[in-house]
Amino acid sequence: MRKKIVAGNWKMNTTLPEGVALATEIDTKLRNRHEVSNKTVVIIGVPFTHIWEVGRSLAPKFSSVAAQNCAAEASGAYTGEVSAAMIASLGCNYVILGHSERRAYYGETDAILVKKVTRALENKLEVIFCVGEVLAEREANNHFEVVKSQLENGLFNLSKEEIAHIIIAYEPVWAIGTGKTATSAQAQEMHAFIRSTVANKYGKDVADNISILYGGSCNTQNAKELFLNPDVDGGLIGGASLKADDFVTLVDIRENV
Fold first, then answer.
1. Is position 171 annotated as part of the catalytic site?
2. Mean pLDDT of 4-33
C-alpha cells in the first residue's frame, strides 16, 4: 500500500539557527498533536548547510530530513558540489531531484538527472523526483507529452526494484509561487496519467505502490480538496513549509483525508 507523504521544501531560506528553530518547532508540534500514524511520512527538505543539525533536531519517529539536490558525479574535482555519499553520511534519508527551479535556472537536463538519480540510489537515498510543465506547455495542450517525456527520460532506465525507491512529485510550474493552483480535477487528471504511464512501463502493482505528490502552491486552504483525489498521495510543500503551524496543519489534513 503506497504511503501518504507531506514533504516540505525550504528552498534557499533560513540561516542555520533559524532552520534549527523552525525544525524544533515543527518537531514539537508533531509530538504534541497526537501519535503520528504510520500512514503519513513527514519529510523536511533543507539546505545542505542544515542537514546535520536539523536532522539532530527531529525525532525519527515523527519526521525525516531531505537534501534539495545532489551532484551528478560520485566524487572528484567538482568544486562546490555535494555528493550523494556526503549527504547520506549526514544521516539524510531523502533527496529532491529534478525540481523545476533546478531545471530552469541551472540547466539540469534529463541526462544529468539520470546520473543524479543513479548516485542517490547507490547511496540508499529515497528520491523525490519532480516533473511538470510550464504555462506555455499547458496552454499548448502539451502537458501530458512533457510529463511523459520527463518520466521516460529521467526514470525509466531504472529496474522495478529501483523504481520502488522513487517518489514522484508533480509540479505544474505555472502554479509555483504564483498563488495559482491546479484545480483538484487538473491535479487528479495528471496524477492518474503519471500512474498509468508508470504502469505501462513497470506494471500495475508497481504503479499502485508509488506515491505521487502534488507540488504547486499547496496550502492549508486547498490541501483537503487536493488530497481527496485518489491518485494524490500528498504534497511537496514550498512556502507553507516555512511556517510550523501551516506545515503541521497540512500533515493533519493528510492524516485525516
1. yes
2. 95
